[in-house]
Design a protein that fits this description.
It is a single chain. By secondary structure, the protein is of the alpha/beta class. The chain has helices spanning about 1-25, 40-45, 55-60, 75-85, 90, 135-140, 155-160, 190-200, 200-205, 255-270, 300-325, 345-350, 360-375, 390-395, 400-410, 425-430, 435-445, 505-510; strands at about 30-35, 60-70, 100, 105-110, 120, 150, 170-175, 180, 280-285, 330-335, 355, 380-385, 385-390, 420-425, 455, 460-465, 480-485, 495. It is built from 18 helices and 18 strands. Strand 6 (about 150), helix 7 and strand 7 (about 170-175) form a beta-alpha-beta unit.
Length: about 525
């Protein structure tokens, strides 16, 4: 009788433990990164949103509306890598979409890998410069039966979200207008992305003109052309300005629809969430329109991007819930770290702001150095607020490097728009308070790609190249990013404690019951009130 009781107790304990584990581990985690998303936009757009889209996310989520993004944002790659690894570029190595290569003497893509081949493209891309694991990597290392799929508009997002071990990674080529990838991932292009390329689905989704979803007079703002009565109209396949080979597709609702369609297909065909092995689906969307610098909600086109994306998300969430079940699903949404207001808008309102052109500034700097040290090319390169010096020439001339760099930093702070200038040693060795601006620069710097001198711009100033293209998205001392997390057992509530974007990865890792990424410096958001 005693043994029978013990057996029943053991059986009950085993069953209870297995039930607890099944509840702890989700079947599917869906991560959604939305470029340009700001919490204030959703509040302004509330009456235009559907019950099953953004409204559902806001009402059913743990909400951190002002998550701190403590890096000098230099593009999508750095942002996505930080979200996925739980650490800063100082450790994960991805300081921007591009970096200055001393060997090549030019700025090249952070994704460039000469040892790779593209699939559907000539670009040789990989995640080899991402120096740490992501939470998706940790999932795949922990369970080889799991799947990770990354779908994005841009290669930088697709690869950083997919990490080193993704099952499939797909992004949009806005030159040839099709899904592409890299042979870095052994399984190549997802067959469902390839099918969209060949069966006409891709072309069909980009063939429709983009016009307002409702009467233009009902929008909060005027169009880019300044009208509240004449509707806007764009063709996603039109080429960008300046005889560019690229189309405007990446900044139209058609791009978001492509991501949604492929995501739903992969969920269905790859049976994501159909077994106890947790799968991850990472998606990148955008609410940014062409030539948009800051994230202020200023045009009717931006509003329509939100309205149409809201419908995409409603469709996706419905599909996920019906196929997988809301009790087996976690969804998180994160915005981007763009400045809220553009220099143009600040200037119109008499607030100091402007555009910093590095080439013009460096030309003056080199002329200054030649006047002191001789007619030599003292500056060898520049990218993303990093200045690269001709160290060989400095050594050949027996110049004191400390005195040389001090003279440069003192000269640079006289430039309009420059707040401060530092040597790389000052930054890489800095260990002060997080509130110090030098810590933000240090977080954003990696020893493999850093220059010899680094500059900090004043608030309201944005760096642009000679063509007016923005280099880096955010420059304010404090940049905030919205974060939403919903799923079984997560109590909808506003989190008032201060958290960082490095806290996303450990939080998602905890939900999946896997190790944190191997260089994670973030912490789990607590309490996740389950």
């Amino acid at each position: 009788m005693r043994y029978k009781f013990f057996f029943i107790f053991l059986l009950f304990f085993t069953f209870a433990f297995s039930q607890e584990k099944s509840q702890e581990s989700p079947r599917l985690v869906v991560g959604i990164k939305i470029d340009g998303l700001q919490a204030s936009h959703l509040h302004k757009m509330w009456k235009y949103l559907t019950p099953g889209g953004f409204r559902k996310i806001l009402s059913e989520s743990m909400v951190v509306e002002r998550m701190q993004h403590n890096i000098v944002s230099a593009g999508n790659a750095a942002d996505a890598a930080t979200y996925m690894t739980g650490t800063y570029p100082y450790y994960h190595g991805v300081s921007g979409d591009f970096y200055f290569s001393r060997a090549d003497n030019e700025a090249i893509s952070i994704l460039y890998d000469k040892n790779q081949t593209g699939i559907g493209t000539k670009n040789k891309f990989s995640a080899h410069r991402l120096l740490t694991s992501t939470f998706t990597d940790e999932l795949m290392l922990n369970n080889s039966l799991s799947q990770v799929h990354s779908i994005a508009i841009r290669a930088e997002d697709a690869i950083m979200m997919g990490g080193h071990t993704a099952t499939s990674v797909s992004w949009i080529d806005d030159i040839t207008n099709r899904w592409i990838t890299t042979a870095y991932y052994p399984k190549g292009l997802s067959r469902w992305a390839d099918l969209m390329n060949v069966n006409g689905t891709f072309k069909e989704l980009i063939s429709e003109k983009w016009t307002p979803s409702a009467s233009i007079s009902t929008y909060l703002n005027q169009t880019v052309k300044g009208s509240k009565t004449v509707p806007f109209s764009y063709n996603p396949t039109d080429r960008r300005e300046g005889n560019s080979a690229r189309t405007i597709l990446a900044n139209t609702p058609a791009a978001n629809s492509l991501v949604t369609e492929l995501a739903k297909t992969i969920v269905e065909k790859e049976l994501l969430g159909a077994d106890p092995h947790t799968d991850v689906l990472m998606l990148q969307y955008t609410v940014k329109i062409q030539n948009q610098i800051a994230s202020s909600l200023h045009y009717a086109e931006q509003e329509d991007m939100y309205i149409r994306l809201d419908r995409n998300i409603q469709s996706l969430l419905y599909e996920l819930s019906s196929k997988i079940g809301a009790d087996k699903l976690y969804v998180f949404v994160v915005g981007s770290g763009s400045d809220v207001h553009s220099p143009e808008l600040l200037g119109k309102n008499q607030i100091p702001a402007g555009h910093f052109n590095a080439d013009k500034s460096l030309a003056l700097l080199n002329t200054y150095l030649m006047a002191i040290y001789g007619q030599e090319k003292w500056i060898t390169g520049y990218y993303g607020k990093n200045i690269f010096l001709n160290k060989r020439k400095i050594e050949d001339k027996n110049l004191n490097l400390t005195d040389f760099t001090k003279r440069i930093t003192e000269f640079l702070v006289e430039f309009e728009g420059v707040q401060a200038a530092y040597t790389s040693a000052d930054i890489l060795q800095f260990s002060g308070e997080n509130s110090d601006a030098r810590m933000k620069i240090r977080n954003s710097t990696n020893k493999n790609t850093s220059g010899d001198i680094m500059i900090e711009l004043m608030p309201g100033w944005i760096e642009v190249d000679n063509k007016g293209n923005v280099v880096g998205d955010a420059n304010n001392p404090v940049v905030n990013v919205p974060f939403y997390l919903m799923g079984k057992g997560i109590k909808p509530h506003q989190v008032t404690e201060i958290y960082s974007t490095t806290d996303i990865a450990p939080t998602i890792s905890s939900l999946m019951d896997i190790p944190f990424p191997n260089a994670c410096t973030g912490r789990q958001i607590i309490p996740i009130e389950q």
